[in-house]
Amino acid sequence: MVYNCRHALRSLLFPAQCRLCGSATRGEPDLCQSCRRDLPWLDTACKQCAHPLHASHAHALCGQCQKQPPAFDRTTALFHYRPPVDHLIKRFKFAEELQVGSLLSGLLAARLAERDGDLPELLLPVPLHPARLRSRGFNQATEIARQVGNRLDIAIDYRLCRRKRNTQAQSLLSPNARRLNLRNAFAVRRPPGASHVAIIDDVMTTGHTSNELARTLKQAGAVQVEVWVIARAGGQGAVSR
Length: 241
Description:
By secondary structure, the protein is α/β, with parallel strands linked by helices. The chain folds into two domains: about 1-40, no CATH class; about 40-230, Rossmann fold (3-Layer(aba) Sandwich). It is built from nine helices and seven strands; from the N terminus they run αααβααβααββαββαβ. It has a five-stranded parallel β-sheet with strand order 1-7-6-2-3. A two-stranded antiparallel sheet has the order 4-5. Strand 6 (about 195-205), helix 9 and strand 7 form a beta-alpha-beta unit. Helix 4 packs across helix 5 (about 100-115) and helix 5 (about 100-115) crosses helix 7. The longest helix is centred in the middle third of the chain and has 16 residues, at about 100-115.
């Protein structure tokens, strides 16, 4: 009863607002219906790497995945990585606005809950090197995995995978250098204990990180590896290796 009164008082004094336009919303700080509708939803994409495709090619593989399939089997990406989603992700990732991360993770979980077929048995956030983790203060992939795992009732293993090397930021490198930068960058401490797993991250750009981690997981015994991300960047091709 006391909690309900406090919650009602807080809602009265601090009404929820859309995180993009500032208009009032009905629940916790969220998005108004207009802003939510205008988000850059990724509706048609390669089912393996989530590279955007023309609407007439729904459920198809892009040319690159047909020629050189990546180690992961399927990708779910909620948005194109462009405004305003890129701005929201940066606020979550670099300004530690965890409520923004909760909002985006909730939208991803809602999309995944609607899909056909079995969900993975285990979620694995892409690990940061300890030095990068100390510098940033938290791992955004871990926060997304926690939110999605709780909503979908899927176990999460935060310690199964580790990053062996403090690799350079992928955004600073050429496509070929990105591939070499991540080669043998990950290690798995033990067999996954699940045949179907999903890698969690905030954004997929070239797919090199997910590809290398999926390759490592399959070597350790995983049979099927998916990738779940908030947004898919790029547009000049699918996963380039």
